[in-house]
């Protein structure tokens, strides 16, 4: 939908005047209020859809491509490992490879709260683009490391720069959409990241063929070329990213004032937290007193333990455990992630359509519980590879499903920021666990790692069932007027209900 000169001439005061009085105080689990917002700003339903799709193309695709690069950069160690890195850097002894993988997550977890707070201060365009360029430069440096200690130090620095991207991107997306638009958007965002996981092995295999060029090993070119690509994406991201809908920062004429005011009114009609609240330590850190936030974080921890274990060790498992060649092990990583992308989008579509979140997570974890024993215990390599499909799909589909679960059940800008930081922070802790579950001494069967992943899937099922039970009781009490949900200051916002 194009912007007309008349649209741009509408003043903020006129928009505020035309906004319905009830718009800041009415919330629903449907679309009636968002339709009211559309009518009040002169948008037909068709124009509304075109506007939302324009935001999708600009926002979801841009952060998705940047996340694709992020995921590729943090998980390319396994490809470099079987391309000669472990031998050249003397990493085959003890826990050296596992240490190099996990130091990334130490700084990744520690620096997330700071970075999530900064994104509101300096804006997502500058913040996300800058850290993307910085971690790309770090990746290039990894290609010139001559000791495993130096590589570990660069991985720790990579964690500092990448710490702010994922929680900030999740937070940014949540500010633009109503609750039952988020499932599909988070799914597409993460699917683009899965493309990285699917293509990373194939790309790494191609870059390995540069072995000997300029006197550098093939594994070094994996880091160097992917680092250069990251820097290019970072520079491009500065021009394509947009700010928060209520931000005063320009977004390169992406939306006019009338369209932005409509988006803000639409989010306010759904959950009432589109406008930025003044920062206070009580509002930000006080969110930590809400036990539900730690429940969401633990679900994310259990999920990412499995996803990172696959990301860091799948090529190694395919080579050592299932007997595939190095080239085949690199390329056979791709098909399970393609299958995962189908499940991810189906989850997002079904969750938004039927307004469900918890059952989607339960479904994904059941898929994992079916796939893990097949992957770990069957005697035939081909059947074990089928188990890889199920585990990869279930675990990766649970990432956007959990993001939607917490986003639908949180109100307030700073509580949302805190929740994004803790969610992704626990995801980083899951990365530490995932980098350790498949130990070198357990090769080639890696049974303890399989058991650990099964335990994580079972934990997620228990947590979601417990949270769902709490939500049902709380919603019934709110319907009777006994409590006000997600409103610690008791300001009278009584329409909010939890999503099961």
From TrEMBL:
The chain crosses the membrane at residues 59-83, 95-114, 126-148, 154-174, 186-207, 219-241, 293-318, 324-346, 358-377, 383-405, 417-437, 449-471. SUPFAM superfamilies: MFS general substrate transporter. Residues 1-25 have a biased composition (Basic and acidic residues). Keywords: Membrane, Transmembrane, Transmembrane helix, Transport. InterPro entries: MFS, MFS_dom, MFS_trans_sf. Residues 59-477 form the Major facilitator superfamily (MFS) profile domain. Pfam families: MFS_1 (PF07690). It is a multi-pass membrane protein. Its main location: membrane. Residues 1-28 are annotated as: Disordered. This is General substrate transporter. It comes from Phyllosticta citribraziliensis. The lineage of its organism: Eukaryota, Fungi, Dikarya, Ascomycota, Pezizomycotina.
